[in-house]
Amino acid sequence: MAGGDDLKLLGTWASPFAIRVKFALALKGLTYEYAEEDLASKSELLLSSNPVHKKIPVLIHNGMPVCESNVIVQYVDEAFAGPSILAADPYERAIARFWAAYVDDKLLASWATILFRGKTEEEKSEGKKALLAALETLEEALAKSSDGKGFFGGDNVGLVDMALGSQLSWLKAVEVMSGEKFIASDKIPLLAAWMARFSELDAAKVALPDVDKVVEFAKMRQARMAAAAARAPSN
C-alpha cells in the first residue's frame, strides 16, 4: 500500500460507516493508523475531531479531521490518486449520491428495525417488508446504473457500491439470525450476483468483518437492550 500522508481513522469494527471508509482507503492503496473507539467512553480525540455529532467515523489527514462516511469517501477520492470512486460527469455523480443516501436511509433502517429497533413482532415484520422493498428498488437501480456491467459504478466500484457493500456483513447476519433469505438469486438476481462479485474484491476482503463475529455482536447488543428494558421502570 502507498503512504506518505499522515492518516488516522477513528471507528468501530462493526460500523458500516467505518467499514465504508476502510474500503475506500484500501481501494486507493493507502496506509493508515486505525483507532478502535469505545462509544461508551469516547476518546478526547474523537470528541475534539467531531465536536458537532461526536460520532465515528472520523478520518484525520495531516491533523485535519473529516467527518461523515460519505463525505470522507468523497474526500479520499479527491485527495488521493488511484481508482476513481465518483464519475467525472456531474449528473452521474449526483445520481450516485442520491442512491448512496437511499441505501443509508432505507436499507440500513430496515435491517436495524429487524435486529434492534422493532419492539414487537409486528414492527419486525414491517422491517422485513421494508428491507425486501428496498432491495427490489436497488435491483432496479443496479440495472439502470450499471449499464449491464459489474457494479453500480459500471466497470469499477463507485460510491453506491461502497454504501451498499459496507452493509453486506450485516445483511448476511440478518439472514442468519432471522432464518430468512433476503438476497436471493431467484428474486433479485442482479443484486445477488453483485454481492458475490463485490465480496471477492481485495478491498472488500480487507474491510468487511466476519459474519459470525457480527452475529455474535448483534446478539450481545440485543441482550443488553433487553436487560436495559427490563430494568426500566414501568408506567
Automatic annotation (TrEMBL):
<dbReference type="Pfam" id="PF00043">
    <property type="entry name" value="GST_C"/>
</dbReference>
<dbReference type="GO" id="GO:0005737">
    <property type="term" value="C:cytoplasm"/>
</dbReference>
<protein>
    <recommendedName>
        <fullName>glutathione transferase</fullName>
        <ecNumber>2.5.1.18</ecNumber>
    </recommendedName>
</protein>
<comment type="similarity">
    <text>Belongs to the GST superfamily. Tau family.</text>
</comment>
<dbReference type="InterPro" id="IPR010987">
    <property type="entry name" value="Glutathione-S-Trfase_C-like"/>
</dbReference>
<keyword id="KW-0808">Transferase</keyword>
<dbReference type="InterPro" id="IPR040079">
    <property type="entry name" value="Glutathione_S-Trfase"/>
</dbReference>
<dbReference type="GO" id="GO:0004364">
    <property type="term" value="F:glutathione transferase activity"/>
</dbReference>
<dbReference type="InterPro" id="IPR004045">
    <property type="entry name" value="Glutathione_S-Trfase_N"/>
</dbReference>
<dbReference type="InterPro" id="IPR036249">
    <property type="entry name" value="Thioredoxin-like_sf"/>
</dbReference>
<dbReference type="InterPro" id="IPR045074">
    <property type="entry name" value="GST_C_Tau"/>
</dbReference>
<dbReference type="GO" id="GO:0006749">
    <property type="term" value="P:glutathione metabolic process"/>
</dbReference>
<dbReference type="InterPro" id="IPR036282">
    <property type="entry name" value="Glutathione-S-Trfase_C_sf"/>
</dbReference>
<dbReference type="InterPro" id="IPR004046">
    <property type="entry name" value="GST_C"/>
</dbReference>
<feature type="domain" description="GST N-terminal">
    <location>
        <begin position="5"/>
        <end position="84"/>
    </location>
</feature>
<dbReference type="Pfam" id="PF02798">
    <property type="entry name" value="GST_N"/>
</dbReference>
<dbReference type="InterPro" id="IPR045073">
    <property type="entry name" value="Omega/Tau-like"/>
</dbReference>
<feature type="domain" description="GST C-terminal">
    <location>
        <begin position="89"/>
        <end position="222"/>
    </location>
</feature>
